């Protein structure tokens, strides 16, 4: 039944993809569809090949990466050892599925994602494809015809200069809305534009985040937000590990039933394996006030912080992932001994070192796109 549903999904996606769309909508739809077919897989995402439009290729790649790392159960393999330009160029031609499978195999992935963005008359075409290892069947293939809009025009270098566009975007993000400036909801774009003079799809060594707290006075709210920064950074890293480990638990539940005890103990184990607090900088602060029903004023402080990618990775590395697995193994054994779980039901964590490496790689990718 699952196979039939998957086939229908892919067929409809391929047909719908030929309708003209804007770039951001195409990326969002592709990321959502990929997350469905890639559940519980480790995949390698290659840079989208965009001859003559490299900024567009980077933007699409980053957008897909962001969509995938936010989806529980999908793991992205570290791409640092992959020569993306060379490989993606090869894949842009008429290449066999076996070549794509070989690339995935060499990088420890169970599937490889690649795409091509190119001009098509007055519009553009984005072709995306996934090849799975161990089979010639294509689990996903989609084509979008992209019409030009302001986003694509900016990426293609048409219209205003880069510095003018950055200035306009900063001004727009500093506009005050109902709950404060727009940068409160788009910290990464604002941080890169204002403090790095870059746009959000470009490479950066920094992670940006807005943390807020409230109080009955402005000083109380500022004190609360300082405490919340450290707490949320540590808890955020624990959440990263829990998210990328969910596929281990989901696999057991799909096959053997809902063993909530294992899921509960995984949450406890991830919380117990606390990371150290990474170094961070406080960049910008905004205080919003609201009038409560009793007539008193409520203060909410929004603090924009910046953490270096290196410090986040060091904090990730400080977590003892192997200890999390040991706790899980002990819980499974306890359920076996108590007769609450059949002896035949096990969680496949015999090669702990491999699992630790995969989880660390996925966590690093999650951090790189500011997903903590």
Task: Explain how this protein is built.
This protein has 13 helices and eleven strands. It has 372 residues and is of the alpha/beta class. The chain folds into two domains: 2-152, 3-Layer(aba) Sandwich (Rossmann fold); 205-368, no CATH class. Strands 1-6-5-4-2-3 form a six-stranded mixed β-sheet, sandwiched between helices. A three-stranded antiparallel β-sheet has the order 9-11-10. The longest helix is centred in the middle third of the chain and has 39 residues, at 218-256. The protein starts with a helix and ends with a helix.
Q: Which short descriptors sum up this protein?
A:
372 residues; alpha/beta; three-stranded antiparallel β-sheet; six-stranded mixed β-sheet; Rossmann fold
Shape: flat
How are strands sequenced across the largest beta sheet? 1-6-5-4-2-3
How many alpha or pi helices?
A: 13
Structural class: alpha/beta
Q: What is the makeup of the main sheet? A: 6 strands, mixed
Fraction of residues in β-strands = 15-25%
Topology:
Elements: H1 2-16, E1 20-21, H2 23-37, E2 41-45, H3 54-69, E3 74-76, H4 84-91, H5 97-106, E4 111-120, E5 123-132, E6 140-146, H6 150-155, H7 162-173, E7 176-177, E8 180-181, H8 187-196, E9 206-215, H9 218-256, H10 260-272, E10 281-291, E11 297-308, H11 309-317, H12 321-337, H13 352-368
Parallel strand pairs: 1-6, 2-3, 2-4
Antiparallel strand pairs: 4-5, 5-6, 7-8, 9-11, 10-11
Helix pairs in contact: 2-3, 9-10, 9-13, 10-12, 11-13
